[in-house]
Amino acid sequence: MVYFQISPIGFDCGLEKDKCDKYPDYCKECVKVKLEKFGLNLTHNIKFTIIDSEEKRIQLFQELIWQKFLDVLNIKHILLVAKESGLALIDYPISGAGVNTELLTGFIQANITFSESSTASNGEGAQENYYQFYEFQYETFNILLKNGQFIRICLVLDHKASESLKSLVTEFLSNYESIYLDKIGEHIRKGKMHFEDTLDYIIDTFNIQLVFPMVLTHTFLPNELNLIKKNPIQKAIIDFAKELLVSKTFFFIINLIDEVQKIVHIDANKILYEIYNLIEKKIIIPTTIETVEESISDFQETRAVRIDRNELISSIIANEDEISILKEKAKHMTEEEVRSSINSYLRKAETAEKGLAYKEAQKEYEMALYLASGFDFKDEVGRISFMVLELDNKIKALELEYALKMGEKAEKKKDYIKAINYYKQGLEILRNVQDLNGYESRIKKLEKKISNLQKHL
């Protein structure tokens, strides 16, 4: 039989406190009775906290999530070592701290040997070593180490570990040895076992995804978009995330919090709470540097193949003499000259965009993108691609507005065929952008309008 301990549990008793005769003196007993009906074993001591308002519940989660974030920001490296062999089972760097794990494991072993010999000389039982933490300095880092029955975990930290992180380490060590007991046993007997497939569990337990690069979903469902618009903090988060993605293909939570705080003057833990909710809804998506780099590489390679084949990115510049000149000139340009030309095209594009000359701006962006793609400038390719995408959305919005206005004018003149044609143009635009803008209701209304006009024919 496998026994599960669930902590913490939230339970809504379903009653208002001003309508309950038992509140607050008998809440604990009342909740225990209700939970036991679900088959939960509550015979052990449990921590019982009354959260008698939605505001307090949210505040509690804000504090919990903020502490998770502080703890994971503190972790630079995670090392799991087999106690018997001293071999590293997991060597997982979270930042580019540059820790030499071979030297570190030797340093750890020396410190543990010294600590355990001191403990033994004081007459303390060796069993106590399973319950204590070892904390010491290594170079510029703080080391937190704890022994399990078969393995030991070592965290390389910037600062001393918080009590919440220590509690998490204890919980992790117990669970890891239970879940992967067969794998650990096989390693002890035969050695040469790979533990990389346990990384997801480590990432999830220590909330490492909070320091991963982040991207936005490409699909905003209509109801999600409406909820975001009603939440000013979430709306600011999404707006600033889009701004950060203009210059890079990903962003980090800490940078996003800084940007939002410049405008929305509220506590960082409240911003993080809303970011966390957006992550839970998969609107903000944690990814990995490797995934991002692979995505950029795939994107760039596609562009590069087109250039090699003399296939242009956009029909806008396909017949321009300027692109033919640029293609020849690019063969002899240095990287510095290419970057200078890219910046020049971008300045022209931004000036044209501010003047609402969107087609001209699009041409300049495409020229810059053409150069960046051909010269394998991955960051520029990603940045310019987002600029092109945003401009394309603006152009589509204008085309949509024009089509709908012309359709309305034709409808008023009872020129139903022309009106239907314009409305169909608008419908096509809406269908192409609905994933990004949540235009489902507008699509349905326009389809209904077209259907009603067709009855006049």
Search tags:
flat; alpha+beta; Beta-Lactamase; single chain; 17 helices; 457 residues; two-stranded antiparallel sheet; 5-stranded antiparallel sheet
Task: Put the structure in a nutshell.
This protein has 457 residues and is an alpha+beta fold.
Structure overview:
The chain is an alpha+beta fold and 457 residues long. The chain has four domains: 1-52, no CATH class; 68-210, 2-Layer Sandwich (Beta-Lactamase); 212-287; 395-454, Up-down Bundle (Methane Monooxygenase Hydroxylase, Chain G, domain 1). The protein is built from 17 helices and seven strands. A five-stranded antiparallel β-sheet has the order 2-1-5-4-3, with helices on both faces. A two-stranded antiparallel sheet has the order 6-7. A hairpin with a 2-residue loop joins strand 3 and strand 4 (141-147). The longest helix is centred in the last third of the chain and has 35 residues, at 378-412. The model is unreliable at 299-319 (pLDDT under 50).
